[in-house]
Amino acid sequence: MTARKSVPATEPLATTPERILQAAERLFSERGIDGVSLREITTAAGVNSASAHYHFGSKNAVLETLFSLRASPIIERREAMLSALQLDRLGRPVLEDVLMAFLQPALELLNTPHGATFTLLRARMVLESGDVKHQVLARTFDRTNEKTLKLLAKALPKLPTKDLYWRFHFMLGTMVYTMAQPGRIESVTKDKIKTSDTQAALEQLIRYTAAGFRAP
Question: What topology does CATH give the domain 67-214?
């Protein structure tokens, strides 16, 4: 039987800032942001503490840089898809098209090398309290969230604004839970359903959220 090769904590030949970010991502996703110190990050990265202070200045700056780096593909893809939406003769987008433009870039990230780890980090930031974490989320996603809400309002002109906000809130929760892949539905269905099938998850998520947005 061939021995399994050990996986390095950080990618080989990475620069010092990259090593720090890789170590921070792994530790944050495993233990939460508050449960990790900057010293632990530098130790895991194999660099000295002075390097982290030189390149980033603080643990919060590491978090902000990391989150911006990993989230940028979602934001760029979402912006492009939202901007490319076709409108009907009344100038309204189709609800399912808006939902696809919002949800697909997030779920697609799961198929990238850092997708699963970043998704766990994002879920922790959503659930953990703390102004810094909420500010990072806001700076990263508020612009596309606001753009999506405007398009949803156009697609559903009769839906009261308060209901629109609530339903968007529920969609965000469903999206993050689905991306986190906690394994509950796999356990309940004896693996008949696999949330790791991102295409199936996306299709079901769009149907489910569209029905919720159209509910009386």
Answer: Tetracycline Repressor; domain 2 (1.10.357)
Enter the pTM of the model. Answer: 0.83
pLDDT in tens, 61-93: 999 999 889 999 999 999 999 999 999 999 999
Q: What is the 3-state secondary structure (H, E, C) of the chain?
A: CCCCCCCCCCCCCCCHHHHHHHHHHHHHHHHCCCCCCHHHHHHHHCCCHHHHHHHCCCHHHHHHHHHHHHHHHHHHHHHHHHHCCCECCCCCECHHHHHHHHHHHHHHHHHCCCHHHHHHHHHHHHHCCCHHHHHHHHHHHHHHHHHHHHHHHHHCCCCCHHHHHHHHHHHHHHHHHHHHCCCHHHHHCCCCCCCCCHHHHHHHHHHHHHHHHHCC
